[in-house]
Design goal:
single chain; Dihydrodipicolinate Reductase, domain 2; nucleotide binding; inositol 2-dehydrogenase (NAD+) activity; oxidoreductase; six-stranded parallel beta sheet; twelve-stranded mixed beta sheet; 33% helix
Length: 482
């Protein structure tokens, strides 16, 4: 049960005791299965969650928290009965909060979640779960150790359409066996700037809290918020921002979660054309050897080149995946999917609801039932899907200048790696960038021990150095044993 002592107080009408923890106005309207939420971060994504959870009966916004007082103030105006905090640790000490929504910068996701579960709170945490693979595993361990409900925000997992797709592909085998797969994230973005002097942090932001586990480095981009995605100190690039959604769909629908992590990873990419200070790639393409179905992913934030404002041409959806099968192909994306035969004729179409709202209801239902297995995106599932992104980013970070001879290392993939290499070569050429140049990095072929979640063999030492980051004092992610 959630906060059993509170419910017992209510059941026995011990108002004097309950009033210490709960304001009378809130207590008067609460039912025994009400869930009080606290929001850790009040930015754009958090506001989206507020809208979703606010629609669920018996869910109350009890507290809001953000180190940016302006953002926290706007949330407090939206929920005038909620308590307001700048420091998430004070929110976590609040016994009236049953569960938290963690929608912070990526580098805070795991530590905030672990602290919350240590404090007895259940957690809904945004994707990507982790900023490094090691801390993701500690978050899984914390959920098990403290017996907490922890849902990761890959909301498409709650779209009923996914079950229909899996039945079509695997039970009915309507297109035959799946032979290869491709994942796409083609979405145009712009540069984040390149300042001559460090960005001045506004006095309304408690910057020490904002940084948390990240290193205290001067910022030379134009904005503090959102563009942290494109700095490896705080974000995970497009691979962690959108790649995790489409790779999670791949794990769910193509592999039915049977593949934890790939056994080998090989990739290339670069940050080109923009001349900004971001250090995550804006063009990134990776091969995953799963031991069964070969997979590639292609991501780009650049336009097609020239005067175009659109993404370059590519097979399949701009944000989605393709399962190539013996008898055709299936193309899936958020909210819809379509199957084609080998002649390109549509065989079947699928329509979904994106999982919005449904995913939030699924979390609240699990909080009430205490049934971890009922979660559509339990922390372990989110950890492993995020892991594909973490490994892909490590491949980029271990790379050296691209050369075609080393790029031909992929064998037995039915040509999907070479095809995406040729596409990316043409795409980069449209921006006057040569594939074989210092601007594009190519990783070594990295071997993964999927059970231990570490690299092994050649080049493993340099790759393993990226599995766990160096944390600032007072903000270390703890090692959690179950």
């Amino acid at each position: 049960m959630i906060n059993v002592s509170r419910r017992q107080f209510m059941a026995t009408a011990a108002a004097a005791s309950a009033a210490v923890t709960f304001p009378s106005a809130m207590r008067a309207t609460m039912a025994a299965d009400d869930v009080n939420l606290g929001y850790i971060s009040c930015g754009g994504r958090a506001n989206g969650h507020m809208g979703m959870f606010d629609e669920i009966a018996g869910v109350n916004t009890a507290a809001v928290c953000d180190p940016d007082e302006n953002r926290m103030g706007k949330a407090a105006e939206r929920f005038p009965k909620a308590k307001s905090y700048t420091d998430l640790r004070k929110l976590l000490d609040d016994k009236s909060v049953d569960a938290v929504v963690v929608a912070t910068t990526n580098h805070w996701h795991c530590l905030a979640s672990i602290w919350a579960m240590e404090a007895g709170k259940d957690v809904y945490v945004e994707k990507p779960l982790s900023h490094s693979q090691w801390e993701g595993r500690q978050t899984v361990n914390a959920a098990r150790k403290y017996n907490r409900i922890c849902q990761v925000g890959t909301q498409q997992r709650s779209d009923p359409m996914q079950a229909e797709i899996k039945k079509f592909l695997h039970e009915e085998k309507a297109l035959g066996e799946i032979t290869t797969a491709r994942v796409n994230r083609y979405g145009v973005r712009g540069p984040i700037g390149k300042r001559d002097t460090p960005l001045k942090i506004d006095d309304s932001v408690n910057y020490d809290l904002w940084l948390g586990p990240a290193q205290d480095k001067p910022i030379f981009r134009d904005k503090l918020q959102y563009d942290w995605h494109w700095d490896f100190n705080t974000g995970s690039g497009e691979m962690g921002n959108w790649g995790v959604h489409v790779l999670d769909d791949l794990r769910n629908n193509v592999f039915q979660d049977s593949v934890r992590l790939p056994v080998r990873v090989f990739g290339a990419g670069g940050r080109v054309a923009w001349n900004d200070v971001g250090d995550t790639p804006n063009v990134h393409f990776v091969y995953f050897d799963t031991g069964s179905i070969p997979v590639v992913i292609g991501l780009t934030n650049l336009t097609a080149g020239g005067d175009s404002r659109k993404s370059p041409r590519h097979p399949g959806p701009g944000s989605g995946y393709i399962a190539y099968c013996e008898g055709g192909r299936f193309e899936g994306q958020r909210g819809k999917g379509v199957a084609f035969d080998n002649n390109g004729k549509v065989v079947k179409e699928f329509s979904g609801n994106n999982g919005n709202g449904v995913h939030h209801q699924n979390f609240i239902d699990a909080v009430r039932s205490r049934n971890v297995s009922s979660l559509n995106s339990d922390v372990e599932v989110g950890h492993l899907s995020t892991g594909w992104c973490n490994l892909a980013n490590i491949a980029f970070q271990t790379g050296t200048p691209y050369n075609s001879e080393d790029a031909s290392a992929v064998k037995g993939d039915e040509g999907i790696w070479q095809r995406i290499v040729e596409e990316m070569s043409q795409h980069l050429a449209a921006h006057s960038v040569k594939l074989e140049s210092d601007q594009i990095k190519l990783s070594p072929m990295l071997t993964v021990d999927a059970e231990k979640e570490v690299f092994t063999g050649e080049s493993s030492a340099v790759a393993n150095a990226f599995l766990k980051r160096e944390y600032r004092a007072k903000y270390e992610v703890p090692e959690v044993t179950v």
